[in-house]
Amino acid sequence: MKEFIQRRDKNGVAYLTLCRPSAYNSLSMALMQQLFETLDEIETDLSIRTVVIKGDGKGFCAGHDLKEMLDAGEESFYQLTFETCYKVMQKITSLPIPVIAQVHGVATAAGCQLVASCDLAYAADNARFGTPGVNIGLFCSTPMVALSRAVMPKHSMEMLLTGKLISAARAESMGLINAVVPENSLEQEVEAVASLVASKSRHTLAVGKRAFYQQKDQSLADAYIHCSQIMVSNMLSEDAQEGIDAFIAKRQPVWKHC
């Protein structure tokens, strides 16, 4: 099978490149399956503490492979496509380490969903984002799930109802991405952020990421109760003890990632 996901590891960071440049890295069934499998491998790879997802060629990701879906012409294939897609997005959220989107060119429909699903996102100043399904009679309902959790309701509805592309600057103002970076500096900026995150304790990153998504939909009182217990458990971990001792002694911590 052709490889649609290229993985390169460096200093605790796994860089994953979507490799279907001729199709703007659209999410074919094979690509999604390979992405899921790669993330699944990374989940238990204790040497990796951060993941970066980027696209090959002229753009990040143009969404689902509509030609593949149309050629299949079967409800069962449509069902499998969207099920595979949401499993990939859920895998990103449940992964015990942070995932960063590095965006250039277009990130549309399920490509925009992919960006919204990542924990952090940085984009080149020429990047464009959109959920244009409404333009072809196919409302971006599954991208809406991630988008509506990443930005304010009226912003997500504007994108979903109009189908218009928005600039990287607008995406930043809406909270869809963290920052806009000059195109020729994007790779260096993302590498710097990824390396900084990867320098932390993997155990602590996992505790924090899991707690963040767990408390989001809880009431204020329940969130405080839940996160207080998380902090007690975290405080008892070896890395927390090491980190606090290193802070007091004014030295660099030596993580055991546990």
Automatic annotation (TrEMBL):
| Pfam families the UniProt entry points to | ECH_1
The residues forming a coiled coil are none
User: Alphabetically, which GO biological process terms does the record hold?
Assistant: fatty acid metabolic process
Please give the superkingdom of this protein's source. Bacteria
An annotated Gene Ontology molecular function: hydro-lyase activity
Asked whether the keyword Transport is assigned, the reply is: no
Q: Which UniProt keywords apply?
A: Fatty acid metabolism, Lipid metabolism, Lyase, Transit peptide
Stored InterPro entries: ClpP/crotonase-like_dom_sf, Enoyl-CoA_hydra/iso, Enoyl-CoA_hydra_C, Mitochondrial_ECH-domain
Q: Which family does it belong to?
A: Belongs to the enoyl-CoA hydratase/isomerase family.
* Its job: May play a role in fatty acid biosynthesis and insulin sensitivity.
Name assigned to this protein: Enoyl-CoA hydratase domain-containing protein 3, mitochondrial
Please name the source species: Neptunomonas concharum
